[in-house]
Amino acid sequence: MTFGQCLWAQETEIITNPQSQYQKAVELYNRKLYEPAQNLFRKEQTANPDKAIRTQSEYYVATIAALLNQDGADAFSEQLYRQSPRVAYEQRGLSANG
C-alpha cells in the first residue's frame, strides 16, 4: 500500500464513519492520554454532525480539564451541567430522575 492509498483510506474512514475520530478520542482517554484525547474531543464538539457525539465530547473535555486541573475546569463542568444535565448525570452512572 502506498502512502497515497493509506491517506485516502484514512480520509474515507472519516467521511464514511463520523464516529471514527470520536472513537479514537475515547481510546486515547481510556489509555489515559488525556491531552491528545481532549484535542480530538474539542474538534468533535464542533465538527461532528451527530449532536449526541458533540454533547458527549463536551463531557469528556470538561472531565479531562478537571483531571488535569486545567484553568476553567469548574466553568466547563458548570456549563455542561446547565446545557445538558441529563448527559452529566448519565456519564456519572446516575439517572436524570434521581
Précis, in short:
With 98 residues, the chain is mainly α. The protein is built from 6 helices and no strands.
Describe the structure.
There is one protein chain. By secondary structure, the chain is mainly α. Helix content is 76%, strand content 0%. It is built from 6 helices and no strands. Helix 2 (20-30) packs antiparallel against helix 3 (34-47). The longest helix has 17 residues, at 51-67. It is flat, with a radius of gyration of 15 Å. The N and C termini lie far apart (54 Å). Mean pLDDT is 75; it is low at 3-14 and 92-98.
Rg computed from alpha carbons, rounded to a whole number of angstroms: 15 Å
State mean pLDDT (0 to 100 scale): 75
* N-to-C series of helices and strands: HHHHHH
User: Got a strand count?
Assistant: 0
Helical residues, percent: over 70%
Give the class from helix and strand content and strand pairing.
mainly alpha
Tally of helical runs: 6
Task: Profile the largest sheet.
Answer: none
**Span of the ends, CA to CA:** 54 Å
How would you describe the shape?
Answer: flat
Estimate what percentage of residues fall within beta strands.
Answer: under 5%
Low-confidence stretches: 3-14, 92-98
Mind sketching the topology for me?
Layout: H1 3-16, H2 20-30, H3 34-47, H4 51-67, H5 73-83, H6 85-91
